[in-house]
Amino acid sequence: MARLNKDKDWYLAQVKPNCAQIAQRNLERQGFECFVPLERFTLRQSGRFQSQTRLYFPGYLFVAIVEASAPWRTITSTHGIAQMVRFGGRPAAVPYQIVSELQAACDHEGCVTERAPLAAGDDVRIAQGPFAGFAGRVDRAAPERRLWVLLDVMGKATRVSLQSRDLRLAS
What confidence score (pLDDT) does residue 166 get? Predict the structure, then answer.
């Protein structure tokens, strides 16, 4: 994973469907630094739970460029890249602080581990564990990032204790 450098500007590139790894590999071969934050989630397959990773921002990756007169055509013509995120006719730089905070929230594998704190009343979706895929509402927070969540199980509200790292805000 690339370490951040304040001398570089970071930009957001949209990748073609299912081409994030291809785009990252091709950009890195051309000398660009990439940052692709991931998240862990649990998938139920054939009655078993499997922990997997996916893009934290599906369809996008961050690209670092040293010069202000960056070779945009090189990036946009890279296999796996659909386009650069633009405002007006020119790609817009992502503020350094945003990328820095995102990278600081990632573990050694590039998975985001720290998230905004959840509060009572927040609607959430469980991303990991045996209740993966269930939706619920935060009832209350306990010490050490443990939350009590109300789940609708067979028409009855059931209170379950979960780690905040296993929950995502419902969209």
Answer: 81
> What's phi and psi for 44, nearest 5 deg?
-95, 120
- Burial class (CB within 10 angstroms; exposed 0-12, middle 13-18, buried 19+) of 162: buried
For residue 9 the two structure tokens come to: 């500007």
Pairing of strands 9-15, 81-84: antiparallel
80: left (phi over 0), alpha (psi -120 to 50) or beta: left
Cβ atoms 36, 81 nearer than 8 A: no
Question: pTM of the predicted model, to two decimals?
Answer: 0.69
Residues with Cβ within 8 Å of 56's Cβ and at least 6 positions away in sequence, in order, are: 37, 38, 39, 112
> In whole angstroms, what separates CA 61 from the centre of its chain?
10
Residues 161/148, Cβ–Cβ less than 8 Å:
yes
